[in-house]
Amino acid sequence: MLRVPIAMPVVVETTPSVRLPTRVALLRKRRGWFFGLSGDQFVKYVFQGNAMVSIIVLGLITFTIFKDAVGFLPMNHANLVVYRVAGLEYVDLYRSQVTAHSAISRYLASVRSHQLDILTKQEGLAPAAAMARLAGFDQFANSFADTINEQETLLGTMTDLVTAVKERQKVAEDLVEAKRNLLAARRGATAERAAALQKEVDAITPEVIDFKAEIQPLRALKPDLTKANATQVAAMKALVAVPPKFSDPELNRQMAKFQGFVAGYFTEMETTAQKMAAWDQNRPIGWWESFTAYAFGREWVTASFWQDWYGVIPLLTGSLLISFIALLIALPLGVAAAVYVNQVARPAEQKFIKPYIEFISAIPSVVLGFFGIAMLGETLRRLSQWPALDWVPGFPMAERLNATTAACLLALMAIPTIFSLAEDAINNVPRSFKEASLALGATRLQTTLRIIVPAALSGIMAAILLGFGRVIGETMVVLLCAGNRIQIPDFSAGVGVIFQPVHTMTGIIAQEMGEVVRNSIHYRALFMVGVVLFLISLLINWLAQKIVRRYRIVAT
Amino acid sequence: MSTTAAAIFNRPTPAKRAETVVFWLLRLATYFVLFCAAFIFIDIGWKGGSVVFRTQAPFLNVPFLTEAPETLNVFTLDGQPRTMGDRAFRAFKATHEAELKGVRIETYVYSAGGIFPNIVGTVLLVAGSVLIALVLGVLSAIYLSEYATDGPFIRFLRLAIINLAGVPSIVFGLFGFGLFVIALDFGVSLLAGWLTMAFMVLPIIITASEEALKAVPRGYREGSLALGATKFQAITTNVLPYALPGILTSSVLSIARVAGETAPIMFTAAFVVRDELPWQVAKWTDFFFQGVMALPYHIYVVASKIPQNEYTRDVQYGTAFVFLFTVAAIAMTAVILRQRLRKRYKW
Q1: Please, which residues have CB within 8 angstroms of residue B300's CB and are 6 or more apart in sequence?
Q2: Quick one: pLDDT at residue B5?
Q3: Cα B189 from Cα B265, distance rounded (Å)
Q4: Chosen from A366, A380, A421, A480 to mutate, greatest number of chain B CBs within 10 A
């Protein structure tokens, strides 16, 4: 396009016969082809419109994901409200007491197996004889376990009561939903059809449950609960007063610990009773709670007969744990390779290694995941069973597929990203820096470590961040190799935590999206997880750019 | 040379020794990475190769590449262990009804037959999405490199492109599912998969094409403009032809990326199993609205959704082999093309 000052359009119609001066005729704006645009302008707008696609797609992604995710909050709110008003919360308070008791019973079982070990291995008794020696202890443990029976029966009754109420509530909700659908269908229908639909709608009368009345049978159980607690306390006290005696000091120490647990149980019993007395069916649940139940919820339980929980924390910790391990592996290797290729390698080596590592990024993630299942998982587990490696925390691994298996493969995926970006950053360090350092008598190593790497640090940081983005957004490898146990990893295991199976945000979407009912709360919860992933990716991008821009070194 | 000088030059100083050690560590780290990648290729190449290749002519396991996945039936008849695909078994059963009575038959899904529909599906998915992405991407890149002048709009545009590149593929899957499959009611279909994956590779294609366009010297455009060509003419005659090799290289790389992705097609385009081939449709419009079987999704299904045993192992490794080496070949082409290109075009 000629960028020349354009004369005002001449009104041609009024003076058709007059020949314009050449200059004016040449510079006159050509008449528009499309909507008053010249051809060139039109082409420009076509290109521009095309470029807008990226913006539109980003906008659409944001809109689509958020639209489906936002609906989660009111649904989860309703979910939590039912949990409270139907009395599930009340029953769960009691359940925690019963669970605490069975934990003590499990402790007794572990003491027993420890004792059996001592008897058979140290004293060399035959299994049958050892069992006979343990008969007294077994009787003690059994009668201890029996002290909970009455409570368990009560808990069962309470559970049945509230699940029945919840079930009715669910049926009522479904009917309301059906009614709404029918009403929606009526809008566009013919008069005749509309009348038929109206009849159907009228026939549906969803039950309105009076939760206050429904909770009464539950409340009525209260004297029974108190009585059961009293008998249990009496029975346990009688039992604990005459504990089985051992000669082994270690076992006596364990039994003392057991006494402590029992004392703790008594206090817990009291606090539970207080909590149950203070429990208020009508205490309102705020909207904020609906959000925190997601953002800080420690449980992700779906399709359960009791209560569904949608807490993102187990998934988030799983994702972060895996990404952390993967970066721990990928970071030194990726940066080392970048430094090596840029500073140390011969040209021939460079020419081979650079495309090779670029090429690694083309390995499809699902193939890596398959390799993890078929090969790496088993290999790592065999390795962990090797007696010489027993000192490593977490060895031998309990599971073939765990966070580390996935992280090893993810590291391989992140290395090309980290390598290329870090190599670029090192390459961009002005030559004069290196020459000045060498001229001052520094060795190549000193130059590399003290001059070049620090100068390229911002680029390397950005590389690490983008590598992190690649790892946390990766789906197939974690879906196949991370073990998929929805639980917050047990950090009390120390470093061994890295060998536990975990579930991840990307994995849960891939695994459950295909099976959920559209627009259900579960469906929306998955979109909420998608929102978290999306926001994380935006944050990483923003940080990476900020770092690069802020600390860029320009040769002057 | 005096002895002092010899002592100075021959004995490595501590700094020099540290240098050697550290450089060797760096070298080891680098080659360790290369070794790990090579190991994966060798493992899958070895175990999968034995499924795909044969020692006798035609040296290829033709049924594996040309048949649909089938259920494998395993049984022992007359003391002889037999394995049969579902179709063969049905024919066999029709003739051997009496003998098969009381024989225990074990079935293993997807363990017989081949992966032909999966290959076809993957090719269709990749071709369609790359075509869409190329058109959108190259036009965007032309705008960015030829027309755009720095301003808030362009900065916003670049920001959008960079952020789009960082969005995880599973989020693209969710987006495609929410928008195309549900809101626009395409269903699980080729079209939904195409659009989802096209948008996913769009940033890659835009960035690479822009780089290729920017590499064409300014003089080419100016010469054309000076001769009176319009801007559009200048672009079509004097810029695009020289940028085309670079653009194509980038598109080859994006093919590898698209072919390798599983997460975005899981809920938008892929079926676990489908009996018809994609061209067996009633109306031609149905072609766009049908789901297909795809190689990566098949690997996922046979690797994790079905019970593992010695019979499924073959189909797992065979599929992984075909898939990995196809994608690797595409990526290799891109890498080699790019290196050649860098050598040839030096302005």
Answers
A1: A366, A369, A476, A479, A480, B262, B266
A2: 65
A3: 9
A4: A366
CA distance B339 to chain A (A): 9
- Whose CA is closest to A533, among A504, A556, A513, A554? A504
- Give B-chain residues touching A375 at CB under 8 angstroms: 43
> What angle in degrees, to the nearest 10, is found between the helix axes of A72-85 and A39-70?
0
Cα-to-chain-centroid distance, residue B12: 50
Q: What is the pLDDT of residue A30?
A: 55
3-state helix, strand, coil in chain B (%, to 5): 70, 10, 20
Please answer yes or no on whether B263 and A51 come within 8 Å at the CB atom.
no
**Interchain CB distance below 8 Å, A61 and B172:** yes
ipTM: 0.89
CATH of region A313-333+361-550: 1.10.3720.10
Q: Quick check: B316 and A445 CB within 8 A?
A: no
- The whole-angstrom distance between A244's CA and the closest CA on chain B is 48
Range list for CATH 1.10.3720.10 in chain B:
120-344
Best probe of the A interface among B43, B174, B177, by most A CBs < 10 A, is B174
CA distance A22 to chain B (A): 17
CA A327/CA A323 separation, integer angstroms:
6
Cα separation, A127 vs B30, whole angstroms: 55
Q: How far is CA A75 from CA A62, A521, B104, in A?
A: 21, 6, 50
The confidence score (pLDDT) of residue A119 equals: 78
- Which chain A residues touch B163 with a CB distance below 8 Å? 58, 537-538, 541
Cβ distance of A55 and B328 shorter than 8 Å: no
The pLDDT, as a whole number, for residue A367 is 92
The continuous run of DSSP H or E covering A301 comes out as: strand A300-301
Contact B182 A518 (CB under 8 A): yes
Those residues of chain A that have pLDDT short of 70 are 1-18, 25-37, 247, 552-556
Q: Chain A interface, mutation test: which of B33, B210, B314, most A Cβ atoms within 10 Å?
A: B33
Cα–Cα distance between A528 and A19 in angstroms, integer?
70
Annotated domain spans of chain A: 88-280, 313-333+361-550
**According to the model, what pLDDT value does residue A505 have?**
92
pLDDT at residue A12 in the model? 46
Query: What are the beta bridge partners of residue B113?
Result: B69
CB contact under 8 A, B157 and A54: yes
CA of B141: which chain A residue's CA is closest? Answer: A51
Instruction: Identify the DSSP state of B150.
Output: S
Query: Which of B182, B199, B266 lies at the smallest CB-CB distance from A510?
Result: B266
Is the pLDDT reported for residue B14 higher than 90?
Answer: no
Task: Tell me the per-residue pLDDT of B100-143, one tens digit each, with 9 for 90 and over.
Answer: 777 777 788 887 778 888 888 888 999 899 999 999 998 899 88
The token duo for A204 is: 């549906």
pLDDT at B29: 93
Contact B292, B270 (CB under 8 A): yes
Least Cα separation, residue A303 to chain B (angstroms): 20
Share of chain B above pLDDT 90, in %: 15
The distance of B90 to chain A (nearest Cα, Å) reads 32
User: What pLDDT score was predicted for residue B2?
Assistant: 57
A534: number of CA atoms within 13 Å, CB side? 23
Candidate from A358, A518, A530 with C-beta closest to B335: A358
Q: Does domain B120-344 have CATH number 1.20.1250.20?
A: no
How much of chain A is in helix, strand and coil states, percent to nearest 5?
A: 75, 0, 25
How are beta strands B106-113 and B69-77 bridged, if at all? antiparallel
Q: Nearest-CA residue of chain B relative to A337?
A: B30
